[in-house]
Amino acid sequence: ATLEQVEGVVEQCRTARDVRQEARALNQLALMLRAADEREGALEAMREAFQCCRRADDEAGLLSCAESWGVMHAGFGDFEVAEVRVREAMQLAQSAGDVGALASCRRNLGLIRGRKGKLRDAVQEGLESTALFVQAGDPQGAAMAAFGLGNILFSSGEVRQAVSVLEHCLLLRRRCKDKLGLAEALNALGLSFAQIGYQLHAMDYFEQALALCQELGDRDGEAACLRHLGRVHHVHGDHNEAVSSLEASLSLCLRRDNSSGQALCHRALADVRMDLGDPRLALVHLEEALSLVK
Q: Which domains does the chain have, with CATH numbers?
């Protein structure tokens, strides 16, 4: 549905005084406006959806809107407001005895606390969320929570802890037979091992992730894995292998019109060409990288 069509549905619901359906339509409208990066419109639509749920005494809708509203504020960088909204959703989930919803809220609260630099709180929320998802019989949710926690730890420099959490995520993704999620976890583990100097471990994880991305036809994922492989080959001293992987990644990025991926490939190729004793070609790649990020 287009934005105009959803706005039309909202008006139809208002005319019919169907508050519950109006809330659902407003929720959808808010998400579409968020995707279009229309901050004020998205937040206003979500506020109206929340009010509709309150008027309709729709507890499930109120919980869903409160959490979505918080996540939306976080996406716009309003972390203080985001935390207030998600905590409100947590209270609603606790009142309803909805373990799955509580797990989701705690996962999002952990991500918000992490973005605010509250690492200890973020880790605690991530652990609680993972346990609650397991309690709710939702291994997919538990895997998502573990993955988010692993990323928080990695970004905060706690890479060895991130490895432990991501390995747990990997186990959960295998149990779920979630190949796309598995590739995502393998890639994250590769980055973590590369960061702490275990280049051969990193290569193994990147190669596994690459095979899954190729099997699934995930070209963006394939390009990222090839780029990461190029980086670890370079660090390991395999310069020709590095060039091969990076050029393959660059080719995919060109076909996908992925300018940020192209810039990263050119930057990495510049480093490799310098180490191969070809400063002229290194400069060409560096200039290409700079032109793509302007």
A: 1-97 (1.25.40.10), 212-294 (1.25.40.10)
